[in-house]
Amino acid sequence: TNRTFTMLKPDAVENGHIGAILEKISASGFRIVAMKLTQMTKADAESFYAVHNERPFFGELVEFMTRGPIVAAILEKENAVDDFRTLIGATNPADAAEGTIRKMFATSMGENAVHGSDSDENAAIEGAFHFSGREMF
Ligand code: ATP
Fold first, then answer.
1. What region holds the Nucleoside diphosphate kinase-like domain (predicted)?
2. Ligand 1 center to residue 11 CA distance, Å?
3. Which atom of ligand 1 approaches the CA of 116 most closely?
4. Residues 8, 11, 13: CA angle, nearest 5 degrees
5. Nearest C-alpha to atom 22 of ligand 1 is from which residue?
6. Could you tell me if the CB of 9 is within 6 A of ligand 1?
7. Which atom of ligand 1 is nearest to the CA of 117?
8. What does the pLDDT look like over 50-80, one tens digit per residue?
9. Which of 3, 25, 85, 128 is spaced 20 to 30 A from 121 at the CA atom?
10. Whose CA is nearest to atom 21 of ligand 1?
11. What is the ipTM metric for this complex?
């Protein structure tokens, strides 16, 4: 069994999709280890997405991720990282497979409803960024 980290992004929260997305995550066999509604500061987002800081969309990404609350969560399942990325679908919802979370709930390439860690190492780093040991179950 292992873990991944997710954020339901500001667009998903604004559009009222928290319940539907969590339902889909649970139905797909993920156990919620940690979860909260929180808002990233500019410094948080710049640090969280530091790997993209040279990209042309970086400023837009930081603006978007800080404009309202997100749901941050740690999820547990066998093969969590890969299975979760399959469940959310391609970065661009236009390319996302039928039935994936991004196909169902994303608006655009930038406002794509949900984040999923891309490796076990990043899942651990990103989970620790948002949660203390006492908040993980
Ligand atoms: P995430 O890291 O959020 O799970 P991802 O791994 O599918 O997404 P990345 O390539 O790591 O995609 O990009 C991180 C985020 O940056 C994307 O989810 C999206 O919100 C934003 N992004 C990526 N490419 C673009 C783009 N061309 N224009 C605008 N925003 C983009």
1. 1-135
2. 14
3. 4
4. 55
5. 110
6. no
7. 4
8. 999 999 999 999 999 999 999 999 999 999 9
9. 25
10. 110
11. 0.93
- CA-to-CA distance for 73 and 36, rounded, in angstroms? 7
Gap between the Cα atoms of 86 and 49, Å rounded: 21
Query: 3-class secondary structure for the chain?
Result: CEEEEEEECHHHHHCCCHHHHHHHHHHCCCEEEEEEEECCCHHHHHHHCHHHCCCCCHHHHHHHHCCCCEEEEEEEECCHHHHHHHHHCCCCHHHCCCCCHHHHHCCCCCCCCEEECCCHHHHHHHHHHHCCHHHCC
- Which are the contacts of 30, defined by CB distance < 8 A and separation ≥ 6? 75, 76, 77, 80, 84
Report the alpha-carbon distance of residue 23 to residue 104 in Å, rounded: 13
118 Cβ closer than 6 Å to some ligand 1 atom = yes
Cβ–ligand 1 distance for 110 under 6 Å, the answer yes
